[in-house]
Structures are given as structure tokens and as C-alpha cells.
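**Folding the chain**
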Amino acid sequence: MRFIKIISLSIQVQISLYLFVVSIDRGFTNTSSAGFSSLFESGLKSLIENFEWESREPINREQVLPEYDFIVVGAGSAGSVVASRLSEIKNWQVLLIEAGQHAIHLMDIPLAAPFWQFSTINWNYKTVPTNNSCLGFEGSRCKFPRGKVMGGSSILNYMIYTRGNRKDYDKWANMGNTGWDYDSVLKYFIKSESANLSHADSGYHGKSGLLSVTDVPYKTPIAKAFVEAGSQIGLPIVDVNGKKQIGINYLQATMKNGRRWSTNTAFLFPTKNRSNLHVKKFSTVTQILIDGATKKAIGVEFVSKLKRYRVFVRKEVIVSGGSINSPQLLMLSGIGPKQHLMDHHIPLVKDLPVGENLMDHVALGSLTVSINKTVSIRMENILKDTDAVNDFLVHGVSVSTVPGGAEALALVDTHRPGSIDGHANLELLLASATYSSHKMISSLCGMKADLYDAVYRATEGKDGFIVFPMVMLPKSRGRVWLRDANPFHHPLIDPNYFADETDLDVLVAGVRLFQRMLRTSPMRSLGAKILDTPLPGCKQHVFDTDAYWKCSARQISYTIYHLSGTCKMGPASDPTAVVDPRLRVHGVRGLRVVDASIMPEIPAAHTNAPTIMIAEKASDMIKEDWDVLTL
């Protein structure tokens, strides 16, 4: 019966995906990029209506209690973990509030990850216009996708699981954050993980955790050539989550049986029948309620279906909105830079540098490679390929399991070339597709039409791939601040990319490293050549000079979605800190921040895994502070 059900679902998916893709193709053919979003939503609605997905996610609570022990704001990569772990204590009542909707299993198709950025499950943030980055994008603004759905950005991301280096966390501890050294946090990475990997260092991976981490079942010939080319120039093939990180390998990903394994699936599905965990969806928290006399968080105010509600807390409010929403909510609640709050007539509760220290892993997005083999990922062909859909649904294999087209990565310390003991400041991330692989790809970053026409339109119908050199230890710092006091208005975001120009040097080093890989036999067998059509904004520079690539990075400044640091962790003696090493907001009782915003320095990692680790450790600290036994 199960096999018959899967075949029936397969037929429904094929029909629905066809309708979906047709709506996308028509949207890009007949409308401007500004009008595409509504057409996408039409296609998505048709797809969902034609294919009923059974969800094991906790149901939406129509009416909440007047008071809880804990209120967790945000059901994303961190909040899902915290709510799950706190509700393990049966006599604790926990409320989890999420602004977005329920997840559907369609979101678990790894290759379809880019599509969801065009939907209502994305907050659709953009940076302020800049004059030193994002210059090739509409309005000189970078798009910053953030998940507005159960599971948060673990639903939107490309599922890449990397933890970083020992030195990342030892540095956190050396900054005064006791208990955050590598040896102390490793156990929390292991606690979460249920690993099924072909290349794994002994003692570094968990087998019984809730978060499935596996190899990607399908590999294109491009990925195989990339890894082999790296090996031939001296990069060891390593477990990037093991003892050493310098080297190259295929991705480890948060997936199971070829499907996305979000924090919603991993941590909240098992809680569906817990009576002490209530989940309120489609509800935006607009303010943390703080007693002015005691400086203690006593609850939150939220809006649901245009109605305003207040709910109170006996123990703590835990803010897990991420590196944009968390600082916004703190500032709206009177916690932030004094003058900035005064400018917006927000009563001051605590003067703290909320919103400062914004970090991201920015990549050079113009390193496009043409090949003479028909082996790259062309999304419109795959989604219409009934065999690929069948293989995915029945066997959990096929190209549909490739997370957004990303397949492999290399980690390098440019300060210690050739050393395998280094601390990676550079990553090369392989995506086995190009901007012309589908009409939507260039719109992901908001690429200007004239740039696309001048450089990439000529590559339509041709095979190729992109390598993203990425700054892993950026020196530039940005900022998040309020547009106004309206909680429904997006805050202002300035990543301040390349304010420190040494970040550009790292990207150029990445180009030169990949050019060495191009000279190897695996790359030559593909006929791999860098696309040498200059970007319109960089024609003043000779192509392939360092100056050209630096200009190119300022044109196509590609976020890898690793926003962090805006509610920085540090001891009370650190004037730049917002939370203490137990993630309690300085000067406000009963309030913690638990998400990527607390990172004092961004680790050399894709930040989803470190964020989950932070949530695991925070959950134990909360239990300890309330006298409950922990790991």
C-alpha cells in the first residue's frame, strides 16, 4: 500500500510541478521582476492545492494561555531547538510564537530551494543602497532572504552543514565568553547530530541526535571534477566537520533520504503531541513587555489576524528572531543605542549597542565558467523530468537532491598556503549551474537587466557552473537600525561590505586558487574556461587583473545568507556586548537572545550548524539556571 501511495503522490507531483514551472516560465517571460512574485504565488497556490501534504508539525494554537513559563519568539533555526528542548521538562509551559506559516513537504525538495525566496515565506529584506558593494543589483541593494515560516531560514537555506574551526570558538572564549571554547561546544554539535556520512572523522559526529546530516546522494560530473581538481593541486580531501578543516570535499547537508531536514522537521515534529508546548503561527511579536521599575521582561505583545494580544511569562522571554529581527525587536522594546531610540521616541530601557557588529560571508558572484559537456544543472528541464521526480520520491536520489545546485566546497587559509592546520579565511563554493540556467536565477540577487543582457544572456542554453570565492573571516562590519517605530516596517540594513579592503584581497586569492584548479586534467576534460565577458561596471579595468576582480566583487556582491553578530555576546566589561556569556541581555532580567545574532565573531562556517549548537547550549544553560539537570 505504501508503494502505491508513493506512486500516486508521484503522479500528483509531476502534474503539480509542471503547472508550477509553467507559471514560473510565463512569469519571467511576460512580466517584470517586480511583478513576478505574485505570479509565483499563483503557481505555488496551484501546486499546494493539487498536492496534499500530510504534516507532522505542531498545530497552530488559536487561543493561548494568559501566562507561560517561557515564551520563545521565532520558530527558526534556533527557536525551534529551544522550544523543543525546554518543553522536554513536562511541568514547564512553553509558548513558541512564529510570524510565518506552517511548512509543507514540498519545501523539502533540495533543488527547489531557490524558488522559495520568491514566496511569502521569505521576509524579503534588502540592504540600503550602497556605493561600495551590490552595485550590479537593482537600486545598488543586496537582497537578504530570511525565513518567515516554521523552521525559519533552515527552510530557505541550501542545507550546507559546516561547523567552523577550533580557533573560532576558542577566540570566543578568549574574548571573555567562558564556556564557549571549542571543547565546550563540540558536545552540542554532536548532541544534535544524526550523521550518516561516507567520510567522517571518528569522535566528531553524533549518531543519535535529532538533526540528520548526510552526504548528498547525487553528484554531477562537475562536482567530481571540482573535488578531483582540488586534490590534484594539493588540497586534501577532508571531513570539514572533523579534526581539520583545510581541504576539499563534497557537501555534508542537513537532509535525510534526499530530503531537506529543517529544524522544524528535526526538533518540532517530535513535539507535536506535547501538551506543554503551544505554537502560535501567523503572529508577529511587536514588543517585549518590560517592567520599568524592576527592569524585568514580563511578557510580549503580538499581533495576529490584525488583533493585538498580550501574554505574560513566569520565567523568561527568549528572543530567537535572527540577526535582523532580534535587534529590531529589542530596539522597539527600548533596548538599544540611546540616541537612536530617542530619535524614534522610544522610551529607553537599557542603552546597549544593539544592531552593531553585523557580519556576513560575502562572495564574489561573477566567477562563471563555461564547459563543453552537457552535465550542468538546468532547473527547468529537471522539474519537467518525470524520471527525476520518480527517483526523488521513490528512492530519495536524482539531481533533485542537490541543495539549490550547490555540490562541493574547499576551505583554505590564504595566510598559510599549503598548511592543513590553518584557519580558513577563504571558501570556494561550487554551484553546478549558471545565472542563465533558469530565468529566475539572476533574480535571486536582483541582478540588473542590463548587466545580465551584457554578460549572461549569450550563455543561455549553454552549460557551465559558478564558483563563489567567499570571505570566511571578514574584517568589515555593518549595522541594523530602525527605519521608524513601526514594528511592521523593515529595519534598515547596511552590511558595509568591503569597508576593510583586505576582504577583497581574500576574494582575489580565491580566483587565483581556482585558476590553478582549471589547469588540472579533470577541469580540462570538461573544457572549463572562465567566462571572460567583462562586467559593464568594470570595463575600466583590464579583465583578470586584481583590480578587475575587486571591481567585480563590488558589482556582484553575493550574500551567502550568514548574517550574524547584531546582539553580540560578551562580558559586562565589554562595551560592545549586548548579551552575557549565558545569553542574558545586559541589565534586563528574564530576557535572553538565542540565535546567530549573539556571535561575537562569525565562525569560518555556514552558520546554520553553529546556530543550532548555540540553541542546544542555551537550552542547557536555561535548564541549569532553573536547577534542572542537563547534558
In short: The chain has a mean pLDDT of 91. The chain is about 30% helix and 20% strand. Residues 53 and 106 are 8 Å apart (CA to CA). The two ends are 41 Å apart (CA to CA).
